[in-house]
Amino acid sequence: MIPGGSDEQSWIQTVKIGKQVNLIKDEYSPLVDVKGLGCWPSEPLYDQIVEGEELKKHNIDLEDYWSKWQDKEEISLEYGKDFDRVVFGISIGAIPFLCPKILEENSNWKRMIESVQTCLTDAFQLWMYPDIAGLGWKYWKNEPPVLGSYIEPFDTWCDMSHLINRESWSDSLSPNHIAYFCGPSPLGITPIDPLVDPNIPKQMEKLKERVIQFLQNNVQSIWPNSVQTSGFNWGLLLNPDKTCQGPMTIESQYLRLNIQPTERYVLSVKGSTKYRLPAGKNGYSNLVITGDWIANSVLNAGCVESTVVSGIEAAKCFY
Question: Domain of life of the organism in this record (predicted)?
Fold first, then answer.
């Protein structure tokens, strides 16, 4: 977004959009069908993209802010011609990438970026043969657990086994428990530098090491039946690729490093709330901002409730 204006008033003058790929057809259909439910896939649907084979061949991640992939076209939208108002709902971590001109000229936005901090998070998901009773969770007769304040870096565990019925498994390879773990990354609140590539493959290898160490040393308190004398029983994990054994069985699970600017968790550090800008009065007459990072009247914190309230307050700017 590029600002414009006069001495009396500022507005968003230009919005530049990078067109990353060319489509085979005029429209892109983003969802895949999973047992009758439209779902967002974990990667683009390459068969709808002209450059699809090239993207797959070179493992290009179009959502990677540091990708070397070149846009196929830049589209410029002008205020008064192509749009009247702009709704900016992208998370605060992306602002240094998308709004450098605003940060150069607007001290309030600059203070918000410097004060409302974000942190990287780690996450992994396990598909396991035993259910939580078989793993030794002693409260298995109660509701499916959501456990917080456990051992970092993976201090949150959620039983997501209700998703088993939505997934496609063969009779010979079917889980009885799905576990989601997440927590703050040791990389913490490392500032985002648009010019410095964080070397994501290297960071993913480190994440894998953290997950293995956590399972080896820290799950016995919640899953006492998952450990052996040598540590975690890797044979409890579904492993379609039988070539992976022992700790390398983790290769058959799902690991995620939330390192992209829009993936970072928005914190509420001491003294930062006063620097959050509201949906409408953000310094630009035709701009509305929304997300769990703006100032709202209910809860200034990184959570879905804050996001919903901020969305409502953004909507009120239009009537």
Answer: Bacteria
